Amino acid sequence: MIALIQHEGREFRVDLKQPVDISISMGNGTGPVAWYLDPATIEPVVNEHFTGSVKLGGSVNFRNIRFNPHGHITHTECVGHISREDYSVNQEVKEYFHMCTLVTVTPEIWSGTDEISQPGDKLITRSGLESLGAIRWNPAVVIRTSPNDRSKLSRNYSDSNPVYLHHDAVQWLSDAGVDHLLLDVPSVDRESDKGKLKGHHIFWNYPQSPILKRSITELVYVPDHVPDGEYLLNLQFAPIENDASPSRPLLFKLI
């Protein structure tokens, strides 16, 4: 199934039957873990009236799922993640197809100090993004970090100070017009930053004048065989009234 895409005077075709799924799945005790959470659980409902497992003698499988979208699965979040106001990703992010740029970045080992970053931190920096050269920075950007081994699919990130974006890099992406930022790490910001979340605040321009349409998607995984470049992104998430929701971003090659 081939679709014709027209965008800002350019024309592309995409094969809608050939998506690249960059989400990470979650199972009963499987998948990534961050923010000091226990693993996710998926368990049948069992009580005196009902058994929600065919294996255990029930007529259907009927399971409860216990997880946190921020710490167990690919998820998309809105400004409600950091705001006093109750913004919902399901209400604020209303566009689902975007022209997208995929880039691979090797984090830098930080040697300086500032109000957040400390020596030894692994950072995506503004200079690292600028060094990628002449790239069309589309409204959606996926950042793949190197090395890119498959342990990202099941890694426990808690208390490991994972890779994050220096706030100057977030400002640079914001100034470039990026509205949808997708990352293969648990957070834009440092794991422990005394609650500042400066990158999140910069990206959403909160609280000065919040850009409500913007989204951040974390814990994606882009396989190595997918080359850097431009794609069509379909960013879908579950219709949950919360600051964040599990999501399944799909990349479509432009042909």
Describe this structure in words.
With 255 residues, this protein is mostly beta strands. The chain is 11% helix and 33% strand. It contains 5 helices and 16 strands. It has helices at residues 69-72, 89-92, 126-130, 167-175, 198-204; strands spanning 2-7, 10-21, 41-44, 46-47, 50-51, 63-66, 75-77, 97-105, 108-109, 122-124, 140-145, 164-165, 180-183, 215-218, 229-237, 244-254. The strands form 4 sheets. It has a 7-stranded mixed barrel with strand order 7-14-13-11-8-15-16. It has a 3-stranded mixed β-sheet with strand order 9-10-12. It has a two-stranded antiparallel sheet with strand order 3-6. Strand 4 (46-47) and strand 5 form a beta hairpin. Helix 4 runs parallel beside helix 5. The longest helix is centred in the last third of the chain and has 9 residues, at 167-175. The chain starts with a strand and ends with a strand.
Order of helices and strands: EEEEEEHEHEEEHEEHEHEEE
The coarse silhouette is globular
**Major sheet, described briefly?**
7 strands, mixed, barrel
Which structural category fits the helices and strands?
Answer: mainly beta
Mean pLDDT: 97
Tally of extended strands? 16
Low-confidence stretches: none
Number of distinct helices = 5
Share in β-strands: 25-35%
